[in-house]
Request: fold
Amino acid sequence: MKREQAFAVLTEMTETESLLRHARSVEIVMRALAAKHGEDQEQWGIAGMLHDADYEKWPDEHPNRIVARLREMNEETIAHAISAHYTAWNVPYDTLLSKALVASDELTGFTIACALVRPTGIVGMKPKSVKKKFKDRAFAAKVEREEILRGCELFGVELSGHIAFIIEALTPFADELQIGEKNGS
Reply:
């Protein structure tokens, strides 16, 4: 599957700007992780892009719709990773891709939430400030902190180091993701 095909599937299933931006941010992080680990950047990016594609229209069936669609397209590896991107679903983590996705999904969203409340956005943000917000259960209250910790453990990364990696991966895309410096605001 090529990125263009994946993007067509995403935009067919997802309409809100916020969820499209989340898909793009996880895609960016997953591509960077693939590069770091010598894996297929296109495949990993597509897994990041499509992991929540069906959530908006079919939240009660998530991720079954996108997983079924990917299996119809003979994209079993991506389908498996997406079927495993939440630990409570009890899907085996038998690929580095599935471990990377579960470690990066929630933490990428949380890192962006932290950037959005800073005057400089993600620019100059440090893992320490993200970890401080992580301890504040009232901040981004719907983010499951235990899920983030389980994902990092499965992927074999330490929380601060993974936060630093995500910040580094996203910073060049700050303007596109609308997480850069607030111009005069």
Summary: The chain has ten helices and no strands. The chain has one domain: 3-177. Residues 159 and 185 are 31 Å apart (CA to CA). The two ends are 41 Å apart (CA to CA).
